Fold:
Amino acid sequence: MKILLTGATGKLGTKVAESLLKTVPASELAVSVRDPEKASDLAARGVEVRKGDFDRPETLTTAFAGIDRLLIISADGDNETRIRQHTNAVAAAKQAQVRFIAYTSLGNADKSSLFLAPVHRSTEEAIKKTGIPYSFLRNNWYLENELGSIQGVLKGAPWVTAAGYGKVGWALQQDYAEAAAAVLSGSGHENTIYELSGKPITQEELAAALGNALGREVPVQQVDDATYADIMRGAGVPDFVVPVLVDIQKAIRTGALEIESNDFEKLLGRPVTSINDAVAQIVRELSKA
Ligand SMILES: NC(=O)c1ccc[n+]([C@@H]2O[C@H](COP(=O)([O-])OP(=O)(O)OC[C@H]3O[C@@H](n4cnc5c(N)ncnc54)[C@H](OP(=O)(O)O)[C@@H]3O)[C@@H](O)[C@H]2O)c1
Structure:
């Protein structure tokens, strides 16, 4: 059996590769990356490193050749670019006669109001159309998305949010990575959709978890969208990113990431890392850096 993952030199992909290497021999693992130099560590450990770029479809059919189980890690960029890139990856998987496709999607991708949902809807549909057995890993929110806010609090700022009391199923990338590795190396995951969500909590509850880790109260400043945009600009967020952040706050406020599911536990075979432990881990890492 040969497993291949894309995006293996990214933050999530690195963790998926490490998780897989705990249970799968390196000879059964391959990665498709844009820059093989960046994967030299994996190559040194016996993982086959192939070159594949979603923007160059001709590279992908070769990269996916002879692969049984493929993980497509969603790329970054604007919606139009990502839809084109993912469509290329799915077409190449079909051409290479891959036997199983897992894809890192978005929580409630089929009905989500988040601006980035069309990317995941369209990729899921393209995968289904191939007829290849699939597993959609509908990842809720990475706790790592909040690194900027956590760093702000470490420097004395309050927890600023326009998300009101909307809940989010935050979890560590490590947990998402281990769940993906379980699907890739396990059996019985054909034609499945996993809603991978931590226990949904509010911004206030997240700030309280941060307060626990820091041993002090973290004040929460609930603001409206315009004020949130001003604060983000003031914190140095580039102008083109600000509306994206505001849109995310809006979507959270209206419940787009409030997803209850025990799929994580099913795949991990253990409870998802608690928010207190997860936040404490991030604070420890930030303090070391
Ligand atoms: N659910 C959430 O909260 C959340 C939050 C942020 C992101 N995401 C999604 O999760 C993905 C993984 O997150 P991450 O933190 O690991 O992001 P990341 O570190 O930026 O990794 C993105 C990966 O996509 C690869 N990639 C980009 N363009 C590509 C192309 N044209 N062809 C092939 N590969 C390409 C990158 O390759 P290189 O290594 O060569 O750069 C990188 O490995 C993101 O790309 C995004 O789609 C989800």
DSSP finds twelve helices and nine strands in the chain. The beta strands are 3-6, 29-33, 48-51, 69-72, 100-106, 134-139, 159-161, 192-196, 220-222. The longest helix spans residues 79-95.
